[in-house]
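I have been asked to look over a protein record a colleague put together. The record follows directly below this note.
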Amino acid sequence: MIKQIQELEIEVIRKNVKNINLTVLPPDGHVRVSVPFGLSEERLAEFLCSKTDWIRVHRQKVIERAAKKEAGSALRNPEMSEEERKELLERYREFLRPKLEEYLAFWGRQTGLHPEKWQMRDMKTRWGSCNPRTKKLWFSVGLAEKPDECIEYVVLHELAHLKIANHGADFKAFLSQFMPDWRVRQKQLNGR
């Protein structure tokens, strides 16, 4: 069932749930609400009217995030041939290598943390990774599309994992000690 609240169209699904669950879905900001079977139409309308501002804000965020993701990385362009993609990857590696070397050297001196080995890989779901046991770091070639301050943040983030394996309070305190604006850089990196 579709419910119209002002300019908003909201899909209502009645199911065996205890609470009202409101969701805004990518990519187009489709709004869905799951409600208990016994919830009255009056209570549902009251709830939805109380959430219109929240819905508008979150719809906009979801739509913007989906648009950024769709624009995405040049590496994910479906119209690019495999040969063009390999060529672009190589150019990205050449561009990124000196930046990573510079930041690894700088933050290594600052923190006293040095990897045994590091490499660049075409990673689809993360910007970097660390194996604390082997002291090996990997960096996404896609970082070449990001601003320098984001690349620098990823380097410090992965170096920190040589000392602290998780993302808990100690890890965050470590990042804050060396890079007080790391949260801003992290948001910029992830397009938020």
In short: The chain has a mean pLDDT of 90. The chain has six helices and seven strands.
